[in-house]
Amino acid sequence: MRPSGRAPDQMRPLTIEPNFTRHAEGSVLIGFGDTKVLVTASIEERVPPFLRGKGEGWVTAEYGMLPRSTHTRSNREAAKGKQSGRTQEIQRLIGRSLRAVTDMKALGERQITLDCDVIQADGGTRTASISGAWVALRIAVDKLLAEGKLTVDPIVHQVAAVSCGIYQGTPVLDLDYPEDSGADADANFVLLDNGSIAEAQATAEGATYDEEGLLRLLRLARIGCTEIFAAQRKAIGR
Amino acid sequence: MRPSGRAPDQMRPLTIEPNFTRHAEGSVLIGFGDTKVLVTASIEERVPPFLRGKGEGWVTAEYGMLPRSTHTRSNREAAKGKQSGRTQEIQRLIGRSLRAVTDMKALGERQITLDCDVIQADGGTRTASISGAWVALRIAVDKLLAEGKLTVDPIVHQVAAVSCGIYQGTPVLDLDYPEDSGADADANFVLLDNGSIAEAQATAEGATYDEEGLLRLLRLARIGCTEIFAAQRKAIGR
Amino acid sequence: MRPSGRAPDQMRPLTIEPNFTRHAEGSVLIGFGDTKVLVTASIEERVPPFLRGKGEGWVTAEYGMLPRSTHTRSNREAAKGKQSGRTQEIQRLIGRSLRAVTDMKALGERQITLDCDVIQADGGTRTASISGAWVALRIAVDKLLAEGKLTVDPIVHQVAAVSCGIYQGTPVLDLDYPEDSGADADANFVLLDNGSIAEAQATAEGATYDEEGLLRLLRLARIGCTEIFAAQRKAIGR
Amino acid sequence: MRPSGRAPDQMRPLTIEPNFTRHAEGSVLIGFGDTKVLVTASIEERVPPFLRGKGEGWVTAEYGMLPRSTHTRSNREAAKGKQSGRTQEIQRLIGRSLRAVTDMKALGERQITLDCDVIQADGGTRTASISGAWVALRIAVDKLLAEGKLTVDPIVHQVAAVSCGIYQGTPVLDLDYPEDSGADADANFVLLDNGSIAEAQATAEGATYDEEGLLRLLRLARIGCTEIFAAQRKAIGR
Amino acid sequence: MRPSGRAPDQMRPLTIEPNFTRHAEGSVLIGFGDTKVLVTASIEERVPPFLRGKGEGWVTAEYGMLPRSTHTRSNREAAKGKQSGRTQEIQRLIGRSLRAVTDMKALGERQITLDCDVIQADGGTRTASISGAWVALRIAVDKLLAEGKLTVDPIVHQVAAVSCGIYQGTPVLDLDYPEDSGADADANFVLLDNGSIAEAQATAEGATYDEEGLLRLLRLARIGCTEIFAAQRKAIGR
Amino acid sequence: MRPSGRAPDQMRPLTIEPNFTRHAEGSVLIGFGDTKVLVTASIEERVPPFLRGKGEGWVTAEYGMLPRSTHTRSNREAAKGKQSGRTQEIQRLIGRSLRAVTDMKALGERQITLDCDVIQADGGTRTASISGAWVALRIAVDKLLAEGKLTVDPIVHQVAAVSCGIYQGTPVLDLDYPEDSGADADANFVLLDNGSIAEAQATAEGATYDEEGLLRLLRLARIGCTEIFAAQRKAIGR
Predict the structure, then answer these.
(1) B24 CB near a chain A CB, below 8 Å?
(2) What is the torsion angle, in degrees rounded to the nearest 10, for the CA atoms of residue E172, residue E177, residue E182 and residue E188?
(3) Residues with Cβ < 8 Å from B119, sequence gap 6 or more?
(4) Do B117 and A66 touch (CB under 8 A)?
(5) E window 66-85, beta carbon within 8 A of F
(6) In the beta sheet, which residues pair with residue C10?
(7) Inter-chain CB proximity D76 and F87 less than 8 Å
(8) What is the pLDDT of residue A150?
(9) For testing contact with chain D, the best of F70, F72, F73 (most D CBs within 10 A)
(10) E41: distance to nearest CA of chain C, Å?
């Protein structure tokens, strides 16, 4: 029995509120249950030094948690003067995931930065960030297309992510915080709408797992991502 | 004529959404027009080293802007590894303002931290932060009173803040970004509900000003804060 | 009764020793009683990136306290690896104050940095810094004029600053440390020699204050700045 | 055809030189072909604050690359003043992997730190680090057992890691640098000697992959880790 | 011929102004010609962690240059967020030099920090710092003796330092900036009043040197330190 | 009697293993007894900003100790976020020493960085670093000569360094850790193969010393460096 009473393959209520803020070229407030992440996409007409003059673009991400997005207050990373290893690991994952669906030649020499800021945390903040970031990116790129700055759409797929884990011996989908902190294994999958895998990360916390366990988690992730893909399309009116 | 078409003594629409997030002891999303700040109040049963064993509490504040809360993206302070002078100046002001209405003896040896994070910026983020922080603090302290952890209310006044400035020769209330960036003088007043002043800061940007100018700005601030005090009370159901 | 025995509107002995060091284009040791600040003005023939190619100059300031300028030793900011919020707040104020009297077009594409280093602290270090910085700036600009690098004087006014406060119920001028640490309200005014106000900052420490209080403090500040303006002129031989 | 001429399921020559340095409680120089990592295990009779008084131990890891371990010199992280996101991600992975085979109650209130320093890099530094760290940990714990400080062996399994990837359409084992930089997918598996999985991370670089691809990579990893487990045992004389 | 016209074994005019500031337990403004260093000695009734409970004291030093103490402005170390290698090297040297004449048992569990801040630089700032630090330390310790906090004098010798160098083929004493920047070899000697050497550092800049050169520099240093020892005694009235 | 049983003028066994790693243009593992330092020389076809366009090259050094190169584990400087004063002092010394034997005009506009990483420490890490750095530099420059990128050899001398000290009243050569931590005086000499001195640093630790002591230490250093020069030549096959 899951603490939330959900079925093992049941996602939390999924909410996607596009255009949550007004300055960013793309923005969205995404909710996986009580986990709420604000994602903005910012377009800049320049690329990092290693790409200058190559005719290619770049998509990158930054991630942060508001100090009291969590059950007890965490210190503000800006005040501590550095980002934690966890923060850096997550923002690297978000960036890779979005780059996996972007054609950098088609994007041209510009950079899109996805800022993922956790307003409220209840497990799954990195997967909500990736799933929301795709919507923010889509909105921002649609503006470039509408303005004629791009003629070919550089976004070649949808991408979404969800966590799964083995909780009290049962593989379950979309872990919330009570499950996350007690799970034996904890996995994050980043999937594309054509069924292929962009990233799989599965970590044994208490007990280790085997092939069969890995495949069962992946199967749950497919169920979750199918639901997220639909919600993404609905959010942008397609 | 103000860019927004407002009368000189007219505030922007004021919105206060209490309990915006669920983990913090107090939280609020406050809007001064398009300026939106999320404020959370976190109670910790400990005080900074300089107060230990003195039987007094402490109220402090931290402030941050999400990277794309602004018209163009700013670098994330956590990634830069330090908070700007502006950030530190603002969080010091917020902390002082809230301490001005708190009886530290009555609060007892605990600390309340007010995290003010700007979701969207359109001028007046520090004054919105202070005005919202009072509501978050009030909610958090009400919990302590309800739980019997406090028997005497340590909050002795309401506090609110608003900006004023001289825009194209006319003193105006509650500057938005277009006014703020073009004003000749820019002032922030922190007022108490008994009419007294907790803090006045008035800076000449283009042209300097005189006593009469200072007093006219202060008079506008009183008009604005009266409106904010009412909205604060309404938000907490009093 | 003030701890020093001064009358409420009496400044501490004011000393201005121009050309205190030899390398800087302008330098001064200014004393407000036991508060001693060394200010140097350094001219560089370049401007910050945001001004390049605009034909305008820039005036900026940095502030520091020697570790044992204070009653008990403070940690060295260079050793701690960062400047405190207070330091940054003060250096921003000094910079704004001097820019308020400088015509940046007339200065041309060069930057003048005012380094204010507190040798000994007894209250009022920021106001002594501003008042001394004007003298150092004046000396440095006079060199540019003498060398023919400037033909039009970019300094359009004198600027000076002084602190005032409400000490045991009485408004007093130019607070020393014992008054500063016990004052109910603490204000700093930056005034121009034409009577206008460049900056007013008034903070309630123990008790809040009202319009009348604010105006009485401002009137004291006018008395103090008149004396400082005369001392500034005398120091540069005018 | 692999650049090195190896068969798809062929590891590079594996070398493990135990007791490479003399001060550490355990040390090893491990080589996966031209990748050489020095790992030391340091025992300290204290635990991090979050574990104090709980009767449990801790195993953690740090990772670094010598500036010229790579083809072109990288900046020294100590000189830059911070560890990169990649470094932090890797050292977190190493720590988790070793904790997966350690019984913290049996270890008692002491901490073992595994320092993994890359002397020469040619792909697979993190997997060589994990595989070598187990040997260093084993040697250090054997000393604790020999000295009678421990009576129950806290190491409950062997752990090893290896990278796999899809290179020019073919799944291959133990990528060297030329393969790593050109692979379509890149995976790292951390396996236990009982066949279970401690960690799986698979990232699509150029092309994404599917279940079948993931399983083929995992099968290769099992081949590689079997070889590493044997080499580990041989290195410690078992 | 020296740029200053001095004889090879001639020091610059030596000035020592004791009690230059009022808060520190000991303070001095020392001048070696145009090099001016303010040194303060601060007594704290605590020792660094590695000495706690051992019944011994500690003497340490910090060093800094005001940004415009030099011919062209240097960046402020507090603003850069770190002390340069040169700064750290110098403050370590100052600390060692003063510890060489202090009996830590006799000092008891307290720390004396010598802050050496360069007001104006013209070569020889580290040697002026050491020579001045002894006076500041002496004054501070005399207070401890006068107050009865110490009964045995922990200062067992005088210590002084001076630079020497080979300038255009000639060994010269007490290099000023023009000599320092053009010297073939540059040495700093820290000597005790009993003739023994606490520290010798000699660096070839342009040309290397031999034993004879080293000894000639040391002989010059003895001449200089004899003069400094006399000035130190005179400054403290002995 | 020395703890190691060596004669006062006896070096520890000296080992130089050239080409220890493969990516660097020059590399060497040097051993002074149990002190082992890996030195790599990296050539970059660019110079620091202050040398651009001057037709001159630059030689610089960085130094680090692996966390467990020492008897007890030291914190990793990359994790602490800064290099210690000791580290900076040592890397400055290494750089100066190598520059003393390099003709920067002959080197041309390129930089050679010598990374000295201590694998195992037993006293004398800085002198081993210098002595090994010369070999790494020699190998790297020989490549430039062989490739025809240089036609004139920019290395004009051999340079080597060794520590000496006064241990229990006796001057001894090449201190190991037990001697180093108990010595009354501790000196490092950097000598050239033509007999001249590049750098002499002698510090009194417990007792001070005199001219005669200094000269006796220098004479020991000559004996040690003669041995090192021979080993350097043998290592590069000359």
Answers:
(1) yes
(2) 50
(3) A21, A38, B29, B36, B37, B38, B66, B69
(4) yes
(5) 82-85
(6) none
(7) no
(8) 97
(9) F73
(10) 8
| Collapsed DSSP state (helix, strand, coil) of residue A149 | coil
Inter-chain touch C64–E44, beta carbons under 8 Å: no
Encode burial over C32-68: b for 16+ CB neighbours within 10 A, e otherwise. Answer: bbbbbbbbbbbbeeebeeeeeeeebbbbbbbbbbbbb
Residue B70 known to bind ligand: no
Q: Chain C: residue nearest E119 by CA?
A: C21
Note whether D201 and D38 are within 8 A (CB). Answer: no
Q: How far apart are CA C118 and CA D63, in angstroms?
A: 44
Whether D208 and A89 lie within 8 Å, measured CB to CB: no
User: What's the pLDDT tens digit per position in A51-93?
Assistant: 999 999 999 999 999 999 999 999 999 999 899 999 999 999 9
DSSP characters for E141-153? HHHHHHTTS-SS-
Q: Are E126 and E107 in contact (CB under 8 A)?
A: no
| Contact (CB<8Å) B76/A115 | yes
From chain D, pick out residues whose CB is under 8 angstroms from the CB of F69: 21, 23
A43 DSSP β-pair partners? A112
Find chain F residues with C-beta within 8 A of E213's C-beta.
197
Phi–psi pair at D51, nearest 5 degrees: -110, -5
pTM: 0.92
Q: How many CA atoms lie within 13 A of D140 on its CB side?
A: 31
Per-residue pLDDT of chain C (238 residues; tens, 9 = 90+): 899 999 999 999 999 999 999 999 999 999 999 999 999 999 999 999 999 999 999 999 999 999 999 999 999 999 998 999 999 999 999 999 999 999 999 999 999 999 999 999 999 999 999 999 999 999 999 999 999 999 999 999 999 999 999 999 999 999 999 999 888 889 999 999 999 999 999 998 767 778 888 999 999 999 999 999 999 999 999 8
Known binding-site residues of D for phosphate equal 86, 124-126
- State residue B231's pLDDT score: 98
Q: Do D76 and F73 touch (CB under 8 A)?
A: no
* C126 annotated ligand binder: yes
Interface contact flag, E85 F91, Cβ < 8 Å: yes
pLDDT score of E227 more than 80? yes
What confidence tens digit (pLDDT) does each residue in E71-101 have?
999 999 999 989 999 999 999 999 999 999 9
Q: First vs last Cα of chain A: how many Å apart?
A: 36
**D193 pLDDT band (50/70/90 cuts)?**
very high
Residue at D139: amino acid letter: I
Calculate mean pLDDT across residues F79-94.
94
Phi-psi region of A127 (alpha: psi -120 to 50; beta: other; left: phi over 0): alpha
- Residue type for position E149: K
Looking at the complex, report in whole angstroms how far the Cα of residue D229 sits from the nearest Cα belonging to chain F.
25
Distance from CA of D151 to the nearest CA of A (A): 23
Q: What ipTM was estimated for this complex?
A: 0.94
Q: How far is A158 from chain D (nearest CA, A)?
A: 13
Among the partner residues A70, A82, A119, nearest to B38 by beta-carbon distance? A119
Residue F125 in marked binding region: yes
Question: How big, in percent rounded to 5, are the helix, strand and coil portions of chain F?
Answer: 35, 30, 35
Pairwise CB contact (< 8 Å): C92 & B85? yes
* Residue of chain C with shortest Cα separation from B201: C201
Q: Is D98 on the interface with F (CB under 8 A)?
A: no
CB atoms within 10 A of CB D226: 16
For tokens 């006399």, name the residue: E230
Output the six-digit token pair for F102. Answer: 């390099």
The amino acid at residue E210 is: D
Write the pLDDT tens digit of every residue in A154-192.
999 999 999 999 999 999 999 999 999 888 889 999 999
